[in-house]
Write a structure and sequence with these properties.
heterodimer; A: alpha/beta; four-stranded mixed sheet; 6 helices; B: TIM Barrel
Chain lengths: 200, 254
């Protein structure tokens, strides 16, 4: 069973639908006991880092996610959910994240040349720095769908980058802790292939 | 490089695609679910569902088919048509829409844009405008493009972007339906006026029109069309091959 962590932010319809399409049993849950039973966890999220980090802390779900991750359970953060895996973010102030991966989330404007619109919205190509099983169904140059204004800049565990007038971190991970800045649930067959690989 | 998006638009009435679709290989060409899946499988980068139903029953059918589509099609879905309140946003987002397109609803109450952007984020709020030349200026029209608001189109678009619209769809009524190419003059002014993604609509009659659009105006992010895709005049995969051959960034995989 795959648990999608529901901490009150974002629309989880597509994520649930895509996992069910792949034949997975999905629980969208804010219950730490269900997270403990799950085989794998997905941490989704859209919106502001500060609000999301606070919700995770106040609900105790952040702690529960870290506990499961420390036990070695596969964890995939998506979009803001990926950013929350890091030490913190400089989005409108300084906010602490879950600290499961080293590095900080910074405005993409610092990484790209002037004249590029922010947010970075649309389909862009993946360039792999390291190959891990999460991308066993994905090829160099495959396009995925991004919507974001911040990213985990120059982090040591970057797995893939994308080019948007500068280098943006597209995926990162270490052992069982994985994150995608893009939305695999909105990235067509390529995205389904990534979710499939995570589920296996 | 971010790729230029190709977006088919489906007009849906009482749960069915209208304007007639001529495709081989589809069991039910008026089924929005089948057509959406077909486009997704043939390279569309995003889909727009436009609800042109007037009745409550039609609206219920629309949300039902939207839900069915969103369960099977995993590319971004934008929904428009009759959106005039936060409750309308909530209704279609709960059915799996990723973005909501607002037109007349924002003209009646511009604050709807600000409220929706605060609640759902700017990435979710698309402003669509029907624009036509009136004595040398560009005016915004409403009521399905029948009535002149008197508003200057560029001022209106700057205003809604300041309020929080994350993308704008520019529908030129002067070129719409004529199939002689996008309204490059208008679009040039729009990309100079706003710094959010601009989606060109109205006038596409051939693949060449898209190539001209993206070559002449590299700051335009996407091209939207309906009948040329529905009638098979332009096949999206062929169009994308031609874009790639001209050096226009495009997504060739699925």
């Amino acid at each position: 069973m795959i648990a999608v962590v529901d901490y009150g932010v974002g629309n989880l319809f597509s994520l649930r639908s895509s996992l069910e399409y792949l034949g997975q049993t999905v629980r969208v849950t804010g219950d730490p006991a269900v997270l403990a039973q799950a085989d794998r966890l997905i941490l989704p999220g859209v919106g502001a880092f500060g609000d999301a980090a606070r919700q995770l802390r106040d609900s105790g779900l952040g702690e529960a996610v870290c506990r499961e991750a420390d036990r070695g359970k596969p964890l995939l953060g998506i979009c803001l959910g990926m950013q929350l895996l890091f030490q913190g973010s400089l989005e409108f102030g300084v906010h602490r994240g879950l600290g499961l991966l080293p590095g900080w989330v910074r405005p993409i404007a610092e990484s790209i040349s002037p004249g590029h619109k922010v947010p970075h919205i649309g389909w862009n190509a993946l360039h792999f720095l390291r190959r891990v099983p999460l991308f066993r169904n994905t090829q160099e140059g495959d396009c995925v769908y991004f919507v974001h204004s911040f990213h985990a800049a120059s982090v040591p565990d970057a797995l893939a980058v994308t080019d948007y007038g500068g280098v943006l971190t597209a995926a990162a991970g270490r052992d069982n802790i994985l994150g995608c800045q893009f939305h695999p649930e909105k990235s067509g067959r390529v995205g389904l292939g990534i979710l499939q690989a995570f589920c296996e | 490089m971010i790729t230029k998006r190709i977006i088919p638009c489906l007009d849906v009435k009482d749960g069915r695609v209208v304007k007639g679709v001529r495709f081989a290989g589809l069991n039910d060409v008026a089924s929005p679910v089948e057509l959406a899946q077909y486009y997704s499988d043939h390279g569309a980068d995003e889909l727009v569902f436009y609800d042109i139903t007037a009745s409550a029953e039609g609206r219920a059918l629309f949300t039902d088919i939207l839900t069915q589509t969103a369960r099977r099609v995993f590319i971004p879905l934008t929904v428009g048509g009759g959106v005039s309140s936060l409750a309308d946003f909530e209704r279609v987002l709960a059915c799996g829409a990723d973005k909501v397109s607002v037109n007349s609803g924002a003209l009646r109450d511009p604050d709807l844009i600000a409220q929706a952007a605060r609640r759902y984020g700017s990435q979710c709020v698309v402003l669509s405008a029907d624009i036509r030349r009136v004595s040398g200026r560009f005016h915004v029209f409403w009521g399905g493009g029948r009535r002149d608001t008197g508003l200057d189109a560029l001022e209106w678009l700057r205003r809604v972007v300041a309020l929080g619209a994350g993308e704008v769809v520019v529908n030129s009524m002067d070129t719409d339906g004529v199939q002689r190419g996008f309204d490059l003059e208008l679009l040039q002014k729009v990309v100079e006026a706003v710094d959010v993604p601009v989606i060109a609509s109205g006038g596409a009659g051939s693949a060449e029109d898209f190539l001209t659009l993206f070559t002449a105006l590299p700051r335009v992010d996407a091209g939207l069309a309906a009948s040329i895709f529905h009638f098979g005049q332009v096949r999206i995969q062929d169009l994308k091959q031609q874009m790639a051959a001209r050096g226009i960034p495009t997504r060739l995989g699925l």
